[in-house]
Structures are given as C-alpha cells and as structure tokens.
C-alpha cells in the first residue's frame, strides 16, 4: 500500500473502537463513530480504510446547501441545445464502484437528505433514475458525530434524539477522549515519529507533556463550544 498512512496510535481506547468498527464492516452495516471533539473519529475510519486497502475514502461534509439530488445525480445540459445527459453524483459513483464513504458531522446533515438515503442504510440499495441500484460488494458507509461524552445517551441515539428513526439503523462506535496517560503516550509517539523513528523513544520532560496536554484540552473545549 503506497498511500500515506494516517497518524494513528494504537491506544487501548482507540484499538477497542477500531475492533468494533471492523466488526461493522464485516457485517456490512453502516457505522457512526461517536466521540468528543479531538478524539480521533475521522482518523479511526481512515486507519481502517488504510489497513483494508480502501485508501480512496470519500469524505463528505454535507450542510443545508446540499440536497439528495446532488449526491445521487441529475440531468445536465449538453452542448446540443435541448439535449440533456445523466451525471451521476459522487455517492452514486461510490455505491457502484465499491468506494468507502465517510459522512462527517452526520447530525448536521438535513433530514431530507438522510431520509432519501434510507434504502442505502437499510438494504444497501439506492434509487437512481427510478430504478434501484444494489451497492457494490465492497461499498461501506461511515459517519462521525461529535458529542461531549460517549455515555448511554450518545449510544442509544447516535444521530441525536431528533433523528432516532435513522440513527437506529447504524452501529454506534464510541470513541472516548484519551486519558492523561494515553495522551502522554500519544505526545511521545508523535515526537518519535517526527524524528523519523530512527532513535529510541526519549522520555519527554513531564512539564512539557503537561503543557501540551493542557493546550490540547483547551483547544478541544473551544472547538466544542463553537
């Protein structure tokens, strides 16, 4: 695999989440990674994609400016006046070719868009030009959602209470914020990789580690408050 590997450190919490995500892939069911800001939700999906050779992961950031037509496809004008041709959307192409898809911040996606994709979530089918297209064997779909804590509420309603009917179709994958010891290990591993891994990992000064961890926590709080 010549693609660049994502920066993934196999901490205990991340490894457990990766196993749960892999189980969802094996079962061919959609999975949503739920966790605090900065916990590594996107990286988790990218790591599994890298390990399985699906490095052409399609990342989708959908907002209220996006409708189902733009994802599935539409007829567009040609150079010939009055003539139109079908232009499949990015999601349709992914379904047809077996590309993996990641929907970021799925709780921000308009309900109408998610509702139009229910057949894809339930039966791995998508309606294209009035006909059902069955997803390629390799097609998988993932999502991320940012929550303050990955407790019972987040797992029971992975898309939020307002999208219960859709969220229950997905397998929730909780990803907790790394604890102090895991964060310290993450910082040290980052330094080691930054040095190219050519030398044994040197213990960092505790004050330096503490400073980096505090800066990380502050940044996460600021992002979560936006």
What do you see in this structure?
This protein has helices spanning 12-26, 41-51, 68-72, 90-97, 111-116, 118-123, 152-156, 164-167, 180-194, 206-225; strands at 31-35, 58-61, 73-77, 84-88, 100-104, 125-128, 131-134, 140-146, 171-174. With 226 residues, it is an alpha/beta fold. The strands form 3 sheets. The protein has a 5-stranded parallel sheet, sandwiched between helices. The longest helix has 20 residues, at 206-225. It is elongated, with a radius of gyration of 20 Å. The model has no long low-confidence stretch (mean pLDDT 83). GO terms for molecular function: ATP binding; ATP hydrolysis activity.
List keywords for this structure.
single chain; about 230 residues; alpha/beta; Rossmann fold; 5-stranded parallel sheet; 10 helices; 9 strands; about 20% strand; ATPase dynein-related AAA domain-containing protein; signal; ATP hydrolysis activity; nucleotide-binding; P-loop_NTPase
């Amino acid at each position: 695999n010549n693609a660049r590997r994502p920066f993934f450190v196999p901490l205990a919490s991340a490894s457990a989440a990766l196993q749960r995500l892999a189980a969802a892939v094996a079962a061919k069911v959609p999975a949503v990674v739920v966790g605090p800001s900065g916990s590594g939700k996107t990286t988790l999906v990218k790591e599994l994609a890298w390990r399985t050779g699906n490095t052409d992961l399609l990342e989708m950031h959908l907002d209220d400016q996006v409708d189902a037509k733009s994802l599935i496809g539409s007829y567009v004008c040609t150079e010939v006046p009055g003539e139109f041709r079908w232009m499949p959307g990015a999601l349709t192409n992914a379904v047809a070719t077996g590309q993996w898809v990641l929907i970021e911040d799925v709780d921000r996606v308009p309900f109408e868009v998610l509702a139009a994709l229910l057949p894809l979530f339930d039966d791995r089918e998508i309606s294209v030009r009035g006909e059902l297209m069955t997803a390629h064997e390799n097609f998988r779909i993932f999502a991320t959602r940012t929550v303050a804590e990955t407790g019972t509420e987040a797992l029971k309603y992975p898309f939020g209470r307002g999208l219960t009917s859709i969220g229950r179709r997905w397998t929730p994958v909780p990803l907790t914020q790394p604890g102090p010891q895991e964060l310290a290990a993450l910082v040290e591993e980052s330094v080691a990789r930054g040095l190219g891994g050519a030398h044994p990992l040197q213990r960092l000064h505790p004050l330096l580690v503490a400073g980096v961890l505090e800066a990380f926590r502050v940044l996460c709080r600021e992002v979560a408050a936006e």
